TrEMBL record, chains A, B, C, D, E, F:
InterPro entries: RutC-like_sf, YjgF/YER057c/UK114. It comes from the Bacteria. PANTHER family: 2-IMINOBUTANOATE/2-IMINOPROPANOATE DEAMINASE RIDA, PROTEIN HMF1-RELATED. This is RidA family protein. Pfam families: Ribonuc_L-PSP (PF01042). Belongs to the RutC family. It comes from Ideonella oryzae. The lineage of its organism: Bacteria, Pseudomonadati, Pseudomonadota, Betaproteobacteria, Burkholderiales.
Length: 156, 156, 156, 156, 156, 156
């Protein structure tokens, strides 16, 4: 019942991507690294074109090179959280709490724009701080830790 | 039942100030910004005079200008947490866990003095770190994230 | 039932080392300070010799002075978490989630090596960030906050 | 007799990889650049898989990306020294002296672990310093200069 | 004949303090660490009083705290080189070449004063550079690597 | 036989410019200071005009002021090494090993161009690093330490 979930993708290091404990699902902090390929998401080219278009790709080089990294990482990280909770049988809106670690808080408005796409209705409980470093390299601009409520017996 | 709480005040960005999930209430990280007025708490003058006196206002300019910002923010943030949990039907002591993010850990002893006023009996579980930035501006010296336990059916 | 736990050791400041709330036990962030002696763990000499040997003491001065501080602190912190959860009637594997704050993320691989000794089977849910400061002094290299699931009525 | 040796590989610039002079063989400082391919060794993927496994590859992305560069360069450099001395008719243990230039002395324990694999018995005479730069780019983390004793007439 | 020398003291890491190879004795770089005690020489108090007096201890606090660290380390390092070569059957003047690595070249005149005490007659061949770091900690201000000529058959 | 050589010029401090030991001649690290005049070589004007022309003087002010210092120092230092070994009865090509300390590795290609003039045939064994400082002032851009092989009895 409290078995480790292999939900989402193989983790970067030896830790669980998520764990159901009682009525809650706890997620590890997620960064924009494709663990299968061992590839860091550095911009629009590293995410599906459709997603890039939706989050704001302009096609203008100087804009996209500035905003692309944080927008693409924001999308990738939130999409991984969505995949993880769906593998547990839930939906994005069940992830009711996010702790967000930025390398640069100037990125917050851009991240926030992407987050609204994942939370069109009810926004999550949220904590936002800027930290001095994230794993595994300085290319990583954001890490997001989610907590979900997914009761074993849904209230009737 | 798990409806978003409008407890406390309207948040700065699009997030919930708190969410009840099962027997727990999860609060967003709180900073010393009056969301109605969009005003940052910068010192004793931005909180009620009675509170300023209680947390250590000396009336001496050079002291108050040094200690005022962190003491006033500490009071404001913890008082907001109190208001939020009371709007959920609980009390400060139900907020059993605090994660505290400082811009400067030299402020910890001053914050700690204020926290004791809010927790006269049972101290909370606590994590304290210094981060490189907090939202929305460099005036913000502290952010506190609380978690409360407020069982739907209080044990008889 | 939700009484404060004196599990583990007396904390540095006025906070609870851990709190049971419903089916969960929440731990305060742990740093490598022996609260009884008020002594910071600075290297292999500050932990039991057997532990030092197990986590990688080489006996070569220049290696041990480099790697000793983070390895010894990693061991001390995780061992304190183990003691705390055992005082609550649980085991290390019940601590299913860790938030890890580093002063220098280059220390992660060394910490990770120690963590595997405490989690030989099932790894925990994990968040890792680098912060700009930790309490109480710059000697502190890591703080770890744990959360455990320890149902009051173990499933039959 | 004192002819320049083409032992090892073609050097980056115009210098000899090694020179026998009397009973000694002097080696140029070696860095982790494959001179044939003009490729810098940046991690485990740039050295043979068997070597990567032996020096500590974990398979965990975030560890390997942190430790891989210095471990792989350490192995590559020492292996090049081994190849060079073997081309002169000697063995690694004949390289009795090493001067080691690091970009970051925190890498010393990791390098030291690799060096032990090349010197299982008799350790060499050693000098270790941290310098502010190495050729040809900032990717280079270590340079090692070896000296070997290989008498023309082995003592009977 | 070319056996590793345990001359001098047990090394910091796994390396030989010196090695005789043919007619030469090669010494590892020496730093001011007492390897038996694992203690770094930080000032006059860490060397014999008689030596401290001879190299310039004034008894005035503000002078001694400034000059003591480099003077004491200079004496300690050169004295270790002397002990090592004497254990090989030679004398200080047989150490004909020194490579000297400083953390701060402003220390050179002070070091030079001490070196003259060890080389009253014939000065050695010398190379002097400032490096960005020395093992094992920032307390180390100087490292000196010596080479000696000690023919197996002294010329008649 | 192992008498100190006054070859080359009187050194800056109290050290030998070179020492013959057995079949080898060891040179002190050489910097571009004219010890007789106590003058630092700062550009083309401080070396013979014929040499300046040969190493690349353009006569264009903005080029010469940029490249002059390192080119002139490179020439001066290598020429001093040549003089020293010739005073010992050898030739430049007998100096088979060079350790080169730069203040800025961007100077390497310019130095390398000059070195080829001194080693038209057989290049020496070479080690190149960038250090944080050289004696006696920040005007010094390079220090070169040479080792020569000059057997007492030349092979017949």
């Amino acid at each position: 019942m409290n078995a480790p979930s292999s939900a989402g993708a193989a983790p970067l290091a030896r830790y669980a991507a998520s764990r159901r404990m009682g009525d809650y699902v706890f997620l590890s902090g997620v960064i924009a690294v494709d663990p299968a390929a061992g590839r860091i998401v550095r911009g629009y080219d590293d995410i599906p074109a459709e997603a890039a278009a939706r989050i704001g790709r302009t096609g203008e080089f100087s804009c996209d090179i500035k905003e692309g990294p944080i927008l693409a990482q924001s999308w990738y990280v939130l999409d991984r959280i969505r995949q993880t909770i769906e593998a547990e049988g839930g939906r994005m809106e069940d992830v009711f709490k996010l702790v967000q670690y930025f390398r640069n808080l100037d990125h917050f408005p851009l991240y926030n724009r992407v987050r609204k796409l994942f939370y069109p209705d009810q926004p999550p409980v949220s904590t936002v701080v800027e930290v001095s470093g994230l794993m595994p390299t300085d290319d990583i601009l954001i890490e997001v830790e989610g907590t979900a409520y997914l009761p074993l017996r849904r209230p009737e």
